[in-house]
Amino acid sequence: MTVTPSPWTGMLAVDDTELYVSDTGGTGRPVVYLNGAYADQSHWRRVIAELGPGFRHITYDERARGKSQRSRDYSFEAALRDLDAVLIARGVQRPLLAGWSYGGILAWHWTDRHPDRVQGSVIVDAFPVGLTGTEGHERIRKLFRRMRLFFPIAARLGLAAKMSADQHADVNIELNEIAAASGPVLQRLTRPVWFVMATGDSLGSKDGEMEQGRTVLEPLLAANPHLRISAKVASNHSKILSKDSPAVAQTIRELADLTSADL
Prior knowledge:
40% of the residues lie in helices and 18% in strands. By secondary structure, the chain is α/β, with parallel strands linked by helices. The chain has a single domain (8-127, 181-262), classed as Rossmann fold (3-Layer(aba) Sandwich), CATH 3.40.50. Strands 1-2-4-3-5-6-7-8 form an 8-stranded mixed β-sheet, sandwiched between helices. Helix 3 links the parallel strand 5 (96-100) and strand 6.
């Protein structure tokens, strides 16, 4: 007898923290949404509205983001453990992943490590490039230190974490290093990973760096047939989920149709 998952919202204990998780339940294809580095789950609401009740939508706030609690560990590996914990707690097997920015990089690493536990991933404006080395790290630290007085307000708006400026910078530095080293990961993926790309810059980037970085995908797309740019939209990195939610939702819908035969 198959039990239909019930809607659920609450706190999930993981390691030394608690994550705020929302699950719409139902019998639709499960989609797990992975947020930007300092964002909360609210950024996905327009995409979820576009997709409608035919899907099972699972969102959560990462450590110290949104309604989730602080932790001693904000590493990328901790973020991977959190995704694992959410999937296990909600009894989700082989979902579609949808990740924006930080969440996109998280999604392709999860897909690489656990190809048998995911149907495929939609990556929203994330790509394998980053500011690295001493110069890049210092540039990141200067940016976050300049913004330190803004963080308490931004955290209440879902635009920053409940972290210090240095902790924000540490997360960003690690992410840039991981992103820049992700070419081999993308090249060996065996599940479908589709990209929705913006055209504009993000906070802290300049002189078209974001658009230049997106070109790094081109040889990887040529080498791995599982990778595809599904859409390229007019909005910038920060606004893509709100301004171009129909394109993101359509890509999720098309990937769900493609992978339905695997269920």
